[in-house]
Amino acid sequence: MEKLFCDLHMHSCLSPCGSDDMTPANLCGMAMLKGLQMLALTDHNTARNLPAAQVCADAYGLLLIPGMEITTREEVHLLGYFPSVEIALDFSEFLRAHMPKKKNKPSFFGNQFVMDEDDNIVAEEDELLIAASDLSLDALAKLIREAKGVPVPAHINRGSNGLLINLGFVPEDLGFTAVEVWRDLPCAHTPQEGRVVLHSSDAHYLGDILEASEFVELPERSVDAFLDYLRRGKPLQ
């Protein structure tokens, strides 16, 4: 087994709430400086900065987990982790048709920059990325699994977009095998039973990326091994 220090929830400059300094190159470089071996880029409702992040992660010897943070119809934040950048991009394009046609206002919400691996802006996303999709939590969980990914409710105990705050419980019929828990706030033990529990930064600024404190142990350093780890859940003690 290999111990991989990780931060599995962070936003690039493509998320309007992310700092313009959170370029794919910068976030991968900071992850390396902080002693991480694995990271996930999980921009709001899009995967368009994943190709650049993959190039940068490869250059630094980091394992990139392709991801997105998707807003459900109920306004719950759901992390989707995918087997490849290509599959995540396909899901991102599919999701675009389910987002409201609202234009971003950079002066109010923030910039939405698509970058290349050399920190060049190659496009700017016009449609607002932090709005809710028209897909339910149930539907999105099923669609992520159909794409060979793993759905993980984000920061379940924090904010109005956390599952426990929004719905008050984790629906057992949706079969979530992992949840993300905000480590600085209390969380009932029951939603964590039998599930992998992730603690990540939800970083929007470079300084917020985790130090080498959280880790997973995998039989090999690969995206597939990580997804299998999430799918298995955690045996009850």
Q: Classify the secondary structure makeup into a structural class.
A: alpha/beta
Radius of gyration: 16 Å
Q: What is the tally of beta strands?
A: 10
- Quick one: biggest sheet? 6 strands, mixed
The whole-number mean of residue pLDDT values reads 96
How much of the residues is beta strand, in percent? 15-25%
Ranges with pLDDT <50 over ≥5 residues? none
CATH superfamily annotation: Metal-dependent hydrolases
Helix content: 25-40%
- Pattern of helices and strands: EHEHEEHHEEHEHEEEH
The total count of helices amounts to: 7
**Named CATH architecture:** Alpha-Beta Barrel
Report, as a whole number of angstroms, the end-to-end distance: 21 Å
- Name the CATH class: Alpha Beta
Specify the overall morphology. globular
Strand order of the largest sheet: 7-4-3-2-1-10
> How many structural domains can be distinguished in the coordinates?
1
Q: What is the CATH third-level topology name? A: TIM Barrel
Tell me about this structure:
The structure is a single chain. The protein has helices at 24-33, 50-60, 85-96, 106-109, 137-146, 163-166, 223-232; strands at 2-10, 38-44, 63-71, 77-81, 113-115, 121-124, 150-153, 178-180, 196-198, 215-218. The chain has 237 residues and is α/β, with parallel strands linked by helices. The chain has a single domain, classed as Metal-dependent hydrolases (TIM Barrel), CATH 3.20.20.140. The strands form 3 sheets. Strands 7-4-3-2-1-10 form a 6-stranded mixed sheet, with helices on both faces. A two-stranded antiparallel sheet has the order 5-6. Strands 8-9 form a two-stranded parallel sheet. Strand 1, helix 1 (24-33) and strand 2 (38-44) form a beta-alpha-beta unit. The radius of gyration is 16 Å and the shape is globular. The mean pLDDT is 96.
